[in-house]
Amino acid sequence: MAHARLTALDIFKSADAAVDVADGGKPGDVAIDLSVDEKGAYMLSTGAFVQGGEANTEASWTMRNALGNAEKVQGTFSIGHKYSNTFKVEATQPVSFGSTAMYNCSVFHSIANLMKHSSYRERQKGITLSLTDVESPHSLAYEATWRTPMPGKGTFAAVPSESAHSFKSSLKHTYTRDSR
What domains can you pick out in the chain, each with its CATH number? Predict the structure, then answer.
């Protein structure tokens, strides 16, 4: 169980523990030898992908355990060769010492190029808040998004309300049952 908790923090490459009888201690005393290998504090990655007929490049960075509280901050930026782009910053923090529950907050901005299929682009700005626990099959998340459709040049909006701004809000509960 301790190994799973340390692994869930995502700051260690490996974690091993050995329990032995304590030398010169009282009956029932034990000595615990914990050996960990911490992951790098910073990580940068790049990549390319095709989505919706548009080539994209992506760069992401991760900063782990900068303040010593098992926190993690991540950022992702991608840009397409036409109009698409995405920016996201995400922070994860354990709820408290000894707990396996994690808070997560992400802020995002994206423009999706849907011109090929629907003659418009869509801008979304929003925030996601979530609470997860590796020892629980339940997770809870809330997302709030401001959506702005942007019709392409020469596009006729058949229904004016379809091209208006809208606010989307959702609450999501996930139950995972893994019997492997």
Answer: 1-39 (no CATH), 41-175 (2.40.160.50)
pTM for this model (two decimals): 0.73
Torsion, Cα 178 39 97 104, to 10 degrees, reads: -60
Placement of tokens 């801008």 in the chain: 123
CA pair distance 76, 51, nearest whole angstrom: 16
Cα radius of gyration rounded to whole Å, the chain: 23
For residue 82, give the H/E element and its range. Answer: none
Q: Mark residue 67 as left, alpha or beta (left: phi above 0; alpha: psi -120 to 50; beta: remaining).
A: alpha
- What's the average pLDDT block by block, 10 residues per block, for the chain (180 residues)? 70 80 79 82 92 87 86 92 90 81 94 76 93 89 92 62 82 89
